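Curious: why this fold?
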Amino acid sequence: MPGMTEDQRTSAAVQAYDCRLCGHQNNPDTHVAQEMMFGLEESFTYFECDSCGCLQIAHIPEDMSPYYPSCLLYTSPS
């Protein structure tokens, strides 16, 4: 996948993750998605929990600001 090194692809393919919601351990099913909305084209690994089915990002970026620009307003309706 573009934007992802060979090491990242290999790591994503062999690593298992623990579900943050139900606690199920060693979920091996991963998916790689590439950010396209803002043109950053960075790849992210997501995993699917074998128990509850939740799809979640494997590693949450430390800096979320590139994905939520300040020029956009993120609020919920009142």
